[in-house]
Amino acid sequence: MREYIVKKLAIAILVLIGVYTITFFLTFMLPGDPARVSLGQHGSEEAVELIRQQWGLDEPRYVQYIAYLKGFVKGDMGVSFRYYPREVIDLIKYRFPVTAYYGLWSIIFAVLLSIPLGVIAAYKQNSPFDNFAVLISQIGVSIPNFWLGMMLIAVIAVRLGWTNPVPEVEYGYYWTPVGFFVSLKDYALPIITVGTGMMASNTRLTRSSMLEVVREDYITLARAKGLSERTVILKHALRNALIPVVTNVGLQFLLLVGGAVLTETVFGINGIGKLYIDAINYRDYPVVIALTLIYTGGVVIVNLLVDLLYSKIDPRVSLR
Fold first, then answer.
1. Which domains does the chain carry?
2. pLDDT tens across 294-312, in order?
3. Tell me, what DSSP letter sits at residue 212?
């Protein structure tokens, strides 16, 4: 197991270097000058050139590449162009907890609903409950997140007044929601928006996986031994059926960044997703590169954790 982890980490370093290289050169190929974007159309050429020198944009590309790479190795993500002289690490430090908060609750919301729904639907195949679960999962997969978010705002927040938009306060040069420190209620609508699609996908996968497992010979043998139906389903069938579900949940962790972009735009939440979009629009190269590398690192870590979790769910994985 230790050799496997070391091998995975070594591959992860190569992946991070490759992603950094591609992101760096693609980002700097974007049309537009960050210095000109910062000063606006009325800024003088002298001022633009001064900012370019201050940010190191007048240096050759390979010099900037090496400088950024050395900074990341030392843990220095540089200074944001848009929020100058704020450091990128400060922006991420105050934005990441917001996205992580409602993102993790969305995953919890999806898992707690989808697994019981999928298990019961598979156990009661072709029953009214099974048809209901299939219908709900189909609707959840089909509805776009941004549309669902807007409908929740219009009906629940505006018409019924059951919840309020996420409160915000000014923090330095940018805004950060304070709902993270106040109440889960403030993030109820974003959690439902992000978690609905995840719940629907997990429900379908749990149901189909359970239907395959309950037809296996060892399940028939367990019933022939006189084990209770609850033990057969929860201890023997569900444990083996969870392997593809765990993979899917791991992928959903990785998709949170993409979902965060739409969700935070709809709800006006200043998290990582909105920071990403703003950085691209304002040609904030250090923020774009830093967020891409953090996302890549998250992909590597989640994949490693999912692989390790396989061996805990199914001992045959570790034996292989």
1. 24-76 (no CATH), 89-319 (1.10.3720.10)
2. 888 887 887 777 777 776 7
3. H
